[in-house]
Every structure is written in C-alpha cells, then in structure tokens.
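Example S7 (structure tokens).
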C-alpha cells in the first residue's frame, strides 16, 4: 500500500490550517492555463504561481488547472490571490473530502471524485476541487492525468458553444466529463461481473471468492464517491447563484439526471455482486451436500454388511453356520443381495 499523510497530523491545529493529507507524492506540481473568448484561445504552462495572478481580472474566461495539491505553499499562494477562504484551501489539500458544494459571495466551491482504473484493473479515486468565479475556474487535482482532454480539444478547436459561453458553462463541462467517465468505469465493472458469473457457473473456487469480495469493496468505495454527488449537484441547482446563468442551469439538470442514473447503476451492481456471493455460497453448499450424500449412502450400505461380518466374526464354537459346506458363499451372497436391495431402494427414492 502507498504511504499516506495521516489525518492525525492536523490534530490540534487552528481551523483553516492547510496540511496535505493523501498519498506521498514527490513529483512537481504542474500549472496550466486556458484563457479564451469566442475569437481566441491562449494555452500556457506556468512555472510559478505568480504567473497566474494576472488572469484573475481578465475580460476573458480563464481555466487554471493545478496537477498536484501536495505543494501546500503553491495552493495557498493561488488561494490568497483569488481570495479563497482558508477553510476551502484546507479542504483542497485534504484529499479525503466527500463530494459537496459550498456557495460563497463571489465564488462557489465544488468537490467531486474522479474515478479510473489502473494498469492492474484496480479502482483509483481522485479528489478534484473546482472553484467557480465570475470569469474564471480553478481546478485542483491530486496528480497529472484526468478526463478533461475532450474539453481541452474543444477549447483549442473552438467547436461548440464552450468558447462563447461563460465560466459557469466551463464548470458544467468539467463536471459533465467527470460524471460521463463514471459510465466508462461501470462498463468495465459490468464486464467483470459477467466474467465472474461465467466462472461461477463452471467452478466456484477460493480465488473466485476473493475476486467477488474485492469487487464488492470497490463498489462500496464507488458508492461513497458517487452518492453524495447527487446532493451536491442538486444544491448547486437550488443555490440560485448569480455565478450560474439560467441557460447553464438547464445543462446542470442533465448532469443531475446522469448522476441519478449512475447511483442506480451502482446500486444494481452492488445487489448483483451480493447475489453472486450468495450464489457462490449456495454452490459450495450444494457441492458439500453432494459429497455428504455420497458418503452417507456408502456408510448406509456398509452398515448391514458390517453387522453381518460382525456376527460371523464372533467365533463361537457352536455357531451352526460354521459347519455348513456352503456357508461362506451363502453369507457373501446375502451381502450382495443386501447391497443390491439398498441400491434399488435408493434409486426408487431418487437419492441416486
């Protein structure tokens, strides 16, 4: 497991003290900016936080993206210049936040969880903090790599209404990209569930049980990441903020519908996985019952044979059968008759 900065490092500190909580990272933070209007688009990578300061009051729309929040000093510099509340900065560098929306006078703060799968197929969740201003959007990610490349492509090409809309529409586009990527992740979960069902039908093994438990844990983590997002988007819709135009509210309703659909998909998958677990336990129980049935039948057949062999193994001197010429073969024949009779009885009762 990756080492993490623990939450206990914040114990006793004053509210609003920014302390990075999350996986240990040593890569340098990366700052990129898109400054655009309908006619032009400027794309740059900034070397320092100070280079981003002039973009706060431009007449154009600015998207400032920061890859890496482990550099607390960088986050505080940007937050101080854009007049971001210290409690918000504290939440940005604490990467265990649940999705939420906080509305301030001149900006809004939105936390979402971005989902992806690593090379080994394991779930990766990443906190993305979005800040909406009158003419700017700030986005903070834990590490490079995201689902926003289609938005960057649209900004460069000037296609669609993105370049001609305001910062609220940019925020909607970023949020929509995160939610749409959930469906891509869920498609992989659907394929994984189908594969487990096929393996379960062939042979339930201990490795399969481990896969079911791992999938169940991941879906629980997905539920924790997605479930509060519905409430957050709904709060953004009901806020009636001057930062969000009525036109963009219509698009946000579509994101809300997608969020509800995502939650329903998560719940359906969790129920399916729980059913797979029950099916696995039932299969193991059935296999155990089959084994016990065979052993019980064998034991039942040998009970009368053991009784007969026990009687004729007592070696009393005056047992009349000991002097019979054909006694040995008669006893063996009686044993065979008993076995055949019991097998016939078991078949009639459909125990075999």
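Recovered sequence:
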């Amino acid at each position: 497991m990756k080492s993490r900065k623990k939450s206990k490092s914040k114990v006793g500190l004053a509210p609003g003290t920014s302390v990075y909580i999350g996986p240990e990272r040593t890569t340098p933070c990366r700052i990129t900016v898109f400054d655009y209007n309908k006619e032009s688009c400027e794309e740059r990578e900034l070397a320092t936080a100070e280079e981003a300061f002039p973009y706060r009051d431009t007449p154009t729309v600015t998207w400032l993206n920061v890859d890496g929040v482990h550099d607390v000093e960088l986050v505080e510099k940007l937050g101080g210049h854009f007049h971001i509340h210290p409690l918000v900065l504290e939440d940005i560098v604490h990467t265990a936040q649940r999705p939420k929306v906080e509305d301030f006078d001149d900006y809004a703060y939105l936390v979402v969880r971005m989902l992806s799968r690593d090379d080994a197929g394991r779930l990766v969740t990443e906190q993305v903090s979005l800040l909406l201003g009158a003419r700017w959007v700030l986005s903070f990610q834990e590490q490079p790599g995201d689902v926003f490349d289609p938005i960057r492509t649209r900004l460069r090409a000037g296609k669609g209404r993105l370049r001609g809309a305001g910062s609220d529409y940019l925020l909607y586009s970023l949020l929509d990209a995160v939610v749409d990527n959930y469906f891509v992740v869920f498609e992989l979960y659907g394929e994984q569930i189908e594969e487990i069902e096929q393996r379960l039908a062939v042979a339930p093994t201990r490795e399969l049980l481990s896969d079911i438990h791992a999938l169940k844990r991941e879906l629980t983590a997905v539920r924790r990441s997605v479930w509060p997002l519905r409430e957050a988007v709904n709060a953004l819709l009901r806020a009636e903020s001057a930062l969000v135009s009525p036109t963009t509210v219509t698009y946000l309703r579509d994101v809300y519908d997608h969020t509800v659909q995502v939650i329903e998909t998560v719940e359906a998958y969790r129920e399916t996985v729980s059913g797979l677990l029950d099916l696995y336990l039932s299969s193991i129980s059935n296999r155990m019952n089959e084994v016990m049935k065979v052993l019980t039948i064998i034991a039942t057949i040998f009970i009368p044979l053991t009784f007969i062999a026990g009687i004729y193994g007592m070696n009393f001197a005056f047992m009349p059968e000991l002097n019979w010429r054909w006694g040995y073969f008669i006893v063996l024949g009686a044993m065979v008759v008993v076995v055949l009779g019991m097998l016939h009885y078991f078949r009639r009762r459909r125990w075999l």
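Notes on this example. The domain at 288-348 is CATH 1.20.58.340 (Methane Monooxygenase Hydroxylase; Chain G, domain 1).
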